[in-house]
Structure prediction request, 188 residues.
Amino acid sequence: MNPASNLILVGPMGSGKTCIGKRLAERFGLRAVDADREVELRAGARIAEIFEHEGEAGFRARESAMLAELLAGDGLLLSTGGGAVLAADNRRLLRERGFVVHLQVTVEQQLERLAQDRSRPLLARGDREQVLRELALARAPLYAQTADLGFDTGAGGAAEAALALARELDALWRRPPSPTPSPLGATA
Prediction:
């Protein structure tokens, strides 16, 4: 059991990190933050534009800086980008600063969920299925290495998955209690 004050969702694109994350944040009283959206807001540009002008390395540097800033605080539900686990320092930070859940999904489910999505730079090249298979092969071990819990989001919709995951989290994740101020004059 990892008694962390932050809940962090990792996993491939289309696994439901943002949709499920919003529901879990409400359920657990956490502030929901989508790391990719935060990068976009602060850069004043869409991820595709960042990739175009700075390359993937430029985007990953922005992503790492954003993760460090966001995870300096507590009470957060953080939905990461699919590649956030690529950097060893990011994996270490995620493990140290939160209870990490790996949202799992098959390539076939990703293809269905992302069929109309044209905003993802990594899917803009070549055969989408092949790209997703290559990403899964490279990233699945990193998700597993980082996560405290694996959860399959394939069956049902986001609401059902969030409810089932919340039940598992109730049993496995214990947030540390808030510090109680000691009465004036009391000694520890």
